[in-house]
Protein 1
Amino acid sequence: MKLLIATAMSASIALGTVPATTAATTAAPVAPTVATTAQVGPGFAFGTAWYPEQWPEARWDVDLALMKAAGFNTVRIAEFAWSRMEPAEGQFDFAWLDRAIAAATKAGMVVVLGTPTAAPPAWMSQRYPDILRVDEEGRRAEHGGRRHFSFASARYRGFATRIATEMARRYGRDPRVIGWQIDNEVGPPSFDNEAKVRWAAFLQRRYGTIAVLNDRWSTQYWSQHYDTFDQVPLRQTGQQNPGLLLDFKHFQTDTWVDYVQAQAGAIRAVADKRQFVTTNTMFWNAGFDHFAMHRDLDLAAWDNYIPDGRPDWVANGANHDLVRGYKQRNFWLMETQPARVDWVPLNRSLDAGQTRELAWQAIGHGADAVLYWAWRSALNGQEQYHGALLGPDGQPFPIYDEVRRLGADLSAAAPALTGTAPVAKVAMIYSYDSRWAIDLQRHSRDFDPIKQFVAWYRPLRIASQGVHVLPVDADLAVYPLVVAPALNVLTRPEADRLTAYVRGGGHLVLGPRSGMKDDANALWPQRQPGPLAGLLGATVDQYYALDAAVPINGTYGDATATIWAETLKPTAPDVAVIARYGPSNGWLDGRPAAVTRRVGKGRITYVGAWLDPAAMTRLADGLLRQAAVAPILPGVGPDVEVAERRGAGRRLLVVINHGVVPATLPLPVGARAIAGDLAGTTLPAHGIAVVALDQAGATKR
Ligand code: GLA
Ligand code: GLA
């Protein structure tokens, strides 16, 4: 689908899927990648959340002029303004919003409208307390914060879809409105009676009969046997069956997807197809399966915050790659901080230059929009100390100039960025079920699945300069290397797909704890990696939580294991042991820590230990060499990030110096800087460069 409109300001907006472009290049095939989400005005959405309802109308034009001067072309509005849009039950007032949209348009902005359902009005909380969220201890939320509604409340759904419908009736065919954000960072579940009824119905849909549930959850254990679905407690924590606890996550996913889709459906029933429908999410948020959430949304959008103000750029890159993976398509950065947040114990500001630098990082990883939160310090309300572009006096804070500089970069680079999307030859598999299953029973408190994911991502990203994060059921064939760091939950159909990938010539690398459980969180009745044990030709004999480092030696040199170690046992004659444990607890001593097996043109490798960072780097380098994956721009320093966006016949590098000293860029012949700070071949501290590669002179990947 490709949809185009022209706004009153003749900004053109394209939304939707543009087929992967085959850039004229001699480079080896890279993963197909789909550009692009939206092009606004200069080809890129750049702007801010704006809360006109918080300020006198006489001020609006001043704000909008300052936005325009910063280079903004987009505002997101209305996402908390329910009490203003529906001041009394069933009475709607959009006149102020009409005027705000008109003012924004006059200043050259296009508009993203938020449905206000994260912040229901006080009349609703008072008249219908049954809509209020109940926490796991049975306490009902009160008015005054946000997200105080129950995700299961049918009455709340009714109110939410009604306001969404009213908004869509008014603005769904309005060319000034380019898209919709549903709610705002949905997430916390509710444990009210309606949720309990919905839970029983969910389990019935999932299992059909109670006998199947009893079987899948092994409820003969501790006399848990259930006669009916409504006997099953609604719990997300505590001494409960792991099957129940994992299914609670599935229930949360199901309910939140349904909640968001109820509003999406209400909007789409009325609105033009050119308007996108999304919701804004929080990176590793464990509240629901984000792949499932995005299946029926038009684009992924997320809110990137660096709460401690000390960015770990590689880890933050993984956040973006995860979000790109939701739809395997470019995404929107719906919110990001002007310098600082206000919701952690110590809200350190980013250093000068880093706000701009992080915007470019998002773009390198596939963002087609960067919007700030917030525009101006609200005089009161819970977020008075948050980073903003303007102070309470309405004058720019120091960060404003940095953002304006970004606006200048973007107007230079946007035409080239249009129609491009990030490329990668390495894929990493992220599985919500696996993450939840491990978090529910870490066994070693330090086995944080996100830290473990990033421990693999870090050396792979640094060495390859491009990693896509994908769900386990994605099409993997184009990636010569696929790494699943801890694929704890693995179903038979998923194992079959992975087997086909290996037989097709790919290299699948599994990390510890892989292939242990099915999707009811039950142990596979065969040893790890369960349904992949035959393909691997080896099994995990035993796993050990570690409280001290264990020596390892092998093909990739000497290493140590911490946190987790598994002993492997080859069952097929053609399995090669690539690492063994040294002396430690007697059980591990001399036993295989990692094995690999060639399968046709492909390969499967299992690494049973959490390795130290230096060993991970050597391992990643070896795996990439074996897969013939070279860096896009070799020879850059350790603080320099390189990302490539490709499409529409163009190859662009986004290069960022995250460091505090200048870096030298070994650019290939024919490379041409089109935006940023490059002086000769020197990139200053916190400097960025957008570089167009000459197709002929482009480095061969
Ligand atoms: C206690 C209980 C057992 C079992 C063990 C596990 O001893 O009586 O049922 O839970 O702990 O260590
Ligand atoms: C989230 C919310 C915003 C705001 C910011 C502050 O991203 O979506 O409304 O509260 O946090 O960091």
Protein 2
Amino acid sequence: MNHPIDDAALNLMLSELRLPTIKSLWPQFTAQADREGWPAARLLAALTEHEIADRARRRFQRHLREAHLPGGKTLDSFDFNAVPMLSKAHVMALSAGDRWLDEGANVILIGPPGAGKSHLATALGLALIERGYRVLFTRTTDLTQRLQLARQELALEAAIAKLDKYHLLILDDFAYVTKDQAETSVLFELITARYEQRSLLLTANQPFGKWQSIFPDPAMTLAAVDRLVHRATIFELNVDSYRRRTALEHQRQRRAAAQPAASTDPAAAQ
Ligand code: ADP
Ligand code: MG
């Protein structure tokens, strides 16, 4: 019972089923199967496996594009020795996602400029995307602006709901929100909407005590901080700017290299 196969019709059906990998592989795979006498089930399994593997790769690429992460910042390239107060084990546990994202718990990174907050936030985001989670990285002022526009168009609730699809929303430079941005309190509404539902990762160069300018009034600041820190992991990166430190270290090495005689003089070592 050898029915002829209509290649064009098969390709159309595979497109309709959204199976692009099987569509591109089947001519080559079926030819090989015929040549080598594969059992039909083996051919089917091989094609299906390729589709699934490709689908995971496509999903990762899509999630990476939509996340808008700054490039080149990974956990591998983060020097944990430079931040002794930060537990690498704790960060690695967070990078697996799981419970804290399921519970909508938050992570807050506080430290001076250059301490590595954005790097660490980005690296965590990337690790989570690799685990299949969806992440959005945004400067807090940019997102605030977007939400304010939505509010003007009476679409704030919908704009906030659209962010629900992200398991993690990274709000970089949280404490940089300006006074006029604070007045509309869109950030407060975002925090309230995500509370215990969806996670936030904030970076800030100011400790909580200095967050009054982010919200319209002290009561709202208190309420916002209360929700944010409830079941949050808070890392304080109290270190000098990494860039400044590496620049100083390079300078020191250059100086040392320029004076080799002094350091190799046996008399000086006595
Ligand atoms: P912050 O957001 O705290 O101001 P960044 O994360 O932007 O600081 O760090 C400034 C620069 O220094 C970036 O290029 C970052 O990759 C690098 N950097 C900071 N801390 C580290 C670290 N511990 N290991 C490797 N690079 C770091
Ligand atoms: Mg930063």
